[in-house]
Design a protein that fits this description.
It contains 15 helices and 23 strands. By secondary structure, the chain is an alpha+beta fold. The protein folds into 3 domains: 260 residues, Bira Bifunctional Protein, Domain 2 (BirA Bifunctional Protein, domain 2, 2-Layer Sandwich); 62 residues, Herpes Virus-1 (2-Layer Sandwich), CATH 3.30.40; 91 residues, Rossmann fold. It has a 7-stranded mixed sheet with strand order 3-9-10-16-13-12-11, sandwiched between helices. A 5-stranded mixed sheet has the order 20-19-21-22-23, with helices on both faces. It has a 3-stranded antiparallel sheet with strand order 5-4-6. Helix 2 crosses helix 11 and helix 5 packs across helix 6. The longest helix is centred in the middle third of the chain and has 21 residues. It is globular and about 75 Å long. The structure holds glycyl-adenosine-5'-phosphate. The site of glycyl-adenosine-5'-phosphate has 19 residues, from strand 10, strand 13, strand 16 and helix 11.
Length: 456
């Protein structure tokens, strides 16, 4: 859709129960969002599709669900305690806080790669180009300071003897610290991978743009542990598989592109984002990183445990290389919502419709009794039958046309109407969301028909 704006998606999500502003009755809590009845189904289906593709269908990938709160030494080893921060500047006039690199990138329309500049270089660029405050238009900046991105809390039962602990800013550390456990219990040879889906937290200075950048979000991350000689081939493999996955979920090819990084962390051998064309422009959807031996070496050093692997055939002992594939579940949900939405012109009408892949649709089918008085009982019976197989909704209020529209906008791929034919011949009418065509099937074949259509 040409003129789809983020505001439109935000309002639609709120209106139909996909996503609500967090703590709304208390006037909200900036940049937190609550998934509603259809939103939670959509996001769960996205996570299920990812797990199926990258864990279930891969012989050598194993899942974990690691604790969010980890030993603080983990974050020293990972480098987050020392350097996980953003360069921030405050506007002295309106007191708003901004990321200096974002100010430069927005001003230069992405032409200047501020991430490669030092704080002094950024300050000079902002002054030389007279970049003003985007909020009040003033030009009175504080010097740049590094702003810590990890949320810190404390644990301890005796007041005054508390230890700082952190809400994890990424899930992958739970995969690195369990490398030896997973390798031992699965008796895996290299290469193998560990995957995890879970919440991460970042005290982002400039969150916003709905689900795109929030302070609390879910990540789907996978680490492939391998020998150095195989590492580039796995890196390229995950680049391709990551792109195929989002295309298979329905994101269109012309809104997707690779963005290879020019500037790499000192330990990294390669890094690439897949970008999606959101209503706010081209932005990162996920990352694929060749991290070398950095993570396991650092955890080995800080924990005193040998994070090594011994090849049973060659007896070679080595610290494995890591290829990481990481994607935000909320950010992907946003992309899916943007892609699926259509305001479709019909002959005498327009309809709002979400063209979700059937596997992602919150409800797979809506059961609609044509006339409540006569068909309700049978429809409830069919609801019970369907709901044992997949998410089913039931709607008996309003005209059948209005009920179809309500299902279209939440993306229900099939509507099953219960009418006199159901009572007399045991058949139901199945209406397709996308082309609005209808077919008639015996009730006992309908569930099987829908099951086949919703596979991913
Ligand atoms: N372990 C590597 C890592 O965390 P990242 O590029 O910082 O890498 C990976 O994050 C993915 O997590 C991003 O591509 C994005 O999809 C998602 N993500 C990161 N920060 C986010 C935020 N503040 N809000 C929503 N999603 C976020």
């Amino acid at each position: 859709m040409k003129d789809l704006t983020m505001d439109k998606i935000v309002n639609l999500c709120k209106q139909y129960g996909f996503v609500f502003p967090g703590s709304e009755i208390y006037d909200g809590f900036a940049n937190t969002w609550d998934f509603g009845p259809v939103g939670v189904e959509l996001k769960n289906n996205i996570k299920k599709a990812w797990w199926k593709r990258f864990v279930q269908e891969d012989m050598n990938t194993y899942g974990v669900d690691a604790a969010i709160l980890m030993n603080p030494r983990v974050w020293e080893a990972s480098g987050h305690v020392q350097s996980f921060s953003d360069p921030k500047m405050d506007c002295k006039k309106c007191k708003q806080r901004f990321r200096a690199d974002n100010l430069i990138e927005e001003y230069s329309n992405g032409a200047v790669a501020a991430e490669a500049m030092s704080n002094e270089e950024m300050e000079k660029y902002i002054n030389d180009n007279h970049i003003v405050c985007p909020s009040c238009g003033g030009f009175d900046w504080t010097p740049i300071k590094q702003f810590k991105l990890m949320f810190e809390t404390s644990r301890g039962t005796v007041e005054g003897e508390k230890d700082a602990v952190y809400l994890r800013p990424e899930t992958c550390q739970g995969e690195y610290v369990n490398f030896l456990n997973v390798q031992r219990t699965t008796r895996s040879k290299l290469p193998f991978a560990i995957a995890q889906i879970g919440k991460s937290f970042r005290n982002e200075i400039t969150p916003g743009n709905f689900l795109f950048r929030t302070i609390e979000f879910e990540q789907m991350e996978l680490q492939k542990f391998c020998h150095e000689k195989d590492s580039m081939s796995f890196y390229n493999d995950y680049k391709k598989r990551a792109l195929d996955f989002v295309k298979d979920l329905g994101l269109s090819e012309d809104k997707l592109r690779y963005h290879d990084h020019d500037k790499l962390a000192h330990y990294a051998k390669a890094a690439c984002d897949i970008q999606y064309k959101f209503p706010i422009g081209w932005e990162e959807l996920n990352g694929i990183h060749h991290r070398g031996t950095w993570d396991l070496s650092r955890h080995g050093e800080f924990s005193g445990k040998k994070m090594e692997y011994q090849d049973p055939e060659t007896n070679e002992k080595y610290i494995p290389n890591v290829i990481e594939y990481s994607i935000g579940a909320d950010r992907l949900t946003l992309a899916i919502l943007c892609e699926a939405y259509e305001e479709e012109k019909l002959e005498n009408d327009t309809r709002e419709v979400m063209h979700f892949h059937p596997a992602l649709a919150p409800y797979k089918v809506a059961v609609l009794p044509l006339v409540k008085k006569y068909h309700k009982e049978k429809a409830e019976e069919i609801f019970k039958l369907f709901s044992k197989n997949f998410m089913t909704t039931y709607d008996e209020t309003g005209s059948i046309g209005k009920r179809y529209r309500r299902q279209d906008v939440i993306g229900t791929p099939y509507c099953v109407t219960i009418d006199d034919d159901t009572m007399n011949n045991g058949t139901v009418t199945i209406r397709n969301r996308d082309d609005m065509s209808q077919i008639t099937l015996p009730v006992n074949e309908a569930a099987e028909y829908i099951k086949q259509k919703i596979e991913f």
